Amino acid sequence: MSSFEQKRNKQVFEIIVILKIIYIALSMIAISSAYNFKKEIINVVLVPIVFSIILVAVLAYFSWIVVYIRGRIDKCPKIADYIETTIMLCVFILTIMTTGLQDSGYKLLGIFIVLIGAIQFGRNYSLGIATISMIIILAIDFLSIGSNKQLLSGYFEKDLILFSALFVTAFILGMYVDIEREHSKELKNLANIDELTGLYNHRYFQEFLQKAINNADKEKQEVSLLFMDIDYFKNFNDVNGHQAGDLILKEIGQIMKSCIRSTDAVARYGGEEFAAILPNTTEHDAVKIGERIRASIQNTDFKGQENQPDKNITISIGISSYPKRAISKHQLINTADDALYRAKSFNRNRVELYRGILDDLYENMEIDKDVVKFIKAFMNMINKKDRYTYRHTESVVIYAKYFGEYLNLTKKEKISLQVSAYLHDIGKLEIPDDVLNKKEKLTEAERQMFIKHPQTGVDLIKSIKQLDEFQPIIKHHHERYDGKGYPSGLKATEIPYLSRMLTIADSFDAMTSNRPYNKVKTQEEGIKELRDNAGTQFDPDLVEKFIEMLDKYKDKF
Questions:
Q1: What whole-number distance in Å separates Cα of residue 233 and Cα of residue 255?
Q2: Does residue 366 sit in helix, strand or coil?
Q3: With contact defined as beta carbons under 8 Å apart, do 460 and 381 qualify?
Q4: Is the pLDDT of residue 515 over 70?
Q5: C-alpha–C-alpha distance, residues 141 and 104, integer Å
Q6: pLDDT tens, 34-44?
Q7: pLDDT cut 90: percent of the chain above it
Q8: What are the contacts of 455-463 at 24+ separation with CB within 8 A?
Q9: Mean of pLDDT values over 250-260
Q10: Bridge-partner residues for 267, per DSSP?
Q11: pTM across the whole model
Q12: Fewer Cβ atoms within 10 A, N terminus or C terminus of the chain?
């Protein structure tokens, strides 16, 4: 709920409470004034008891109002609301019966019940109260006067103005409240809905996600988050025009909406990015929903899709969950975004579930806890400085993992390769941001910063004894097979074996992922680049094995 809604509901709540206080107070005054407590000595004892009981009942009633009514603004009436109204009408009957029946001057109190009903529940509810109030007054007149038609007619004429006031108040105020609520609902939709797609917008996404997380904490449930991005959307816009692109966004938005449940929320996060929040949903079920969305979009025939690289409109989806994969809203968004990046990096048109590679390494390779602690610290530093380097690092680790599996490395070698893959670019922490993300040609001084980053990385970890064994692999991951690399100019088998493996994984990911200074290549183009540089930049035997590994584990990338 927005701060504006909270403020408005608080003010409406205060009006309702004030009206109820006035109604109860006037009713109590009217009833108490009808008794002459001086006539009997026994009343000296009864009066305090009666008033104590009334006071306790009134205090209990207003305590209930504070707890219950506060959250009932703009809601449909429930059984408790009908019971409350019935009690108020009973108090109304008691007041009239104790203050002169047909001659009571307190018949006008009924208008308070009508006002409360109109403000709280709208026109229909208040008209119902006005009708019942009218019947109560007529019934009391009839029972008091009997069959004397002349007297009955006279009292009816006197009460006619009151009847009119009750009905006019119920109708006009109730209608105004209904109009105001409808208008407020429309304004809320304008504030929460993306005009182009008809989905929720980014603002509502943030609000709904926080609410879903809060509910998950209370109910001990999971919340899953899907981040979705249309593949090659810029290409579609460039070829078909932005109006065609807008139509695609709208169509895809409706497909997503049809694939989720009524309890879920799908939003346009920004540009061609969408997000779906799935309360009370495990990541396993979220993957099924993600696959349903992906398949539905892939199987839809969109106008202009023949101009796309794959001759089709497809979408990549990243999934994370709270609290299993993330412990806060911010982390949930980041992990889902990381999973989306991985899906985009690995050929697109896929659903990728977030899983920290470091967690996988720790659970399955029994890596030392201190090493994990140091790696996490360095990865957090990299993530804060440069999101691309962080994502690139995780992708390189994945390639390194399956490369090691394919080559049947020993357990110790697999650990060394993957840990080195995590740490291979930490030397870039010393490179200024403007240089790290520079699109133009680097100056010689800037180029030297990149050349020195393997040695800088080693310098950063050399004081950490637990990381000693990984230093050679990190230091030499930019050596070339022909001896023209850096920092030591090592050649062929002089380069550590694991460094030669890491060089290929590092270069292939750099070629096939989005970078600020390099045009992304397809996997096929990346493979061709590896082969073209086999024997010069890369170990030719390892290049072919890496390509074979890509084919064997193609479902992993």
A1: 17
A2: coil
A3: no
A4: no
A5: 10
A6: 655 444 444 55
A7: 43
A8: 455/427, 455/487, 456/427, 456/429, 456/430, 457/423, 457/424, 457/425, 457/426, 457/427, 457/428, 458/427, 459/427, 460/378, 460/426, 460/427, 460/429, 460/430, 461/374, 461/378, 461/423, 461/426
A9: 95
A10: 200, 275
A11: 0.59
A12: N
Structure tokens at 26: 């006037």
Q: At what angle do helices 497-512 and 387-406 cross, to 10 degrees?
A: 130
Residue whose C-alpha is closest to residue 266's, from 255, 258, 277: 277
Measured CA to CA, the distance from residue 234 to residue 307 in angstroms comes to 12
The residue count of the chain comes to 557
Joined together, the tokens standing for residue 200 give: 């929720």
Check residue 270 and give left, alpha or beta (phi > 0: left; psi -120 to 50: alpha).
left
Domains of the chain: 3-191 (no CATH), 193-355 (3.30.70.270), 356-557 (1.10.3210.10)
Tokens of 110: 């009924």
Give the rounded distance of the alpha carbon of 27 from its chain centre. 49
Q: What region does 438 belong to: left with phi over 0, alpha with psi -120 to 50, or beta?
A: beta
Strand partners of residue 317? 228, 351
Distance, C-alpha 185 to centroid of its chain? 21
d(CA 241, CA 5): 40
Over 60: is that where the pLDDT of 400 sits? yes
Distance (Å, whole) CA 459 – CA 473: 13
What tens digit of pLDDT does each residue of 117-170 get?
A: 898 888 999 999 999 988 888 888 777 776 666 666 666 777 788 888 899 999
Q: Which residue has the higher pLDDT, 383 or 234?
A: 234
Spatial distance between the Cα atoms of 431 and 434, rounded to a whole number of angstroms: 8
Q: Which strands, in side-by-side order, build the sheet including 273-279? A: 265-270, 273-279, 223-230, 315-322, 351-353
The two beta strands, 273-279 and 223-230, are antiparallel
441 CB neighbour count, 10 Å cutoff: 8
Pairing verdict, β 351-353 and 315-322: parallel
- For 419, phi then psi, to 5°, come to -65, -40
Closest CA to 223 of 276, 260, 291, 294: 276
What distance in Å separates the CA atoms of residue 19 and residue 116, rounded to the nearest whole number?
A: 7
Helix H, strand E, coil C: the string for 327-358 is CCHHHHHHHHHHHHHHHHHCCCCCEEECCCHH
Sign of the torsion angle spanned by Cα atoms 244, 247, 252, 255: negative
User: Given the DSSP bridges, would you call strands 273-279 and 265-270 parallel, antiparallel or unpaired?
Assistant: antiparallel
Tokens 């109030």 found at: 133
pLDDT tens readout for residues 300-343: 999 989 888 888 999 999 999 999 888 889 889 988 998 898 88
End-to-end CA gap in the chain: 41
Task: Determine how β-strand 273-279 pairs with β-strand 351-353.
Answer: unpaired
Residue 153, SS3? helix
